[in-house]
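Fold this: Glyoxalase
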Amino acid sequence: MSKHPITGIRTVGVPVSDQDRAVAFYVGVLGLQKRLDAPVEQFGGRWIEVAPPGAVTTIALVPGEKTGVETGIRLTVGDAAALHASLSERGAEVGELLLWDGVPPMFTLRDPDGNGLEVVE
């Protein structure tokens, strides 16, 4: 076992083609907080992290050529049906609200680059 164990997950990267457009979506539409926005010359853009209020783990909006990936990120919400309706009204690309017996309500969501996320109650 390592003398320096891993103690957590700080951030998960999501590739985006336009960081400003991504911030507008993740902050303006989803309501996440922008936690960090710093220029990184070697990176060809900025290091931007967003997260739900109070969350430990952040989402890094990383400049990338390959977008439209399934991120595996599952966001939690208190009322999936209400968020689904709100995002639909605002023009976000959301999948069907899934209501299965014994499973929390959930739906898929795509950001402006087509990256897939899931929302689970």
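The chain has a mean pLDDT of 95. Residues 18 and 108 are 22 Å apart (CA to CA).
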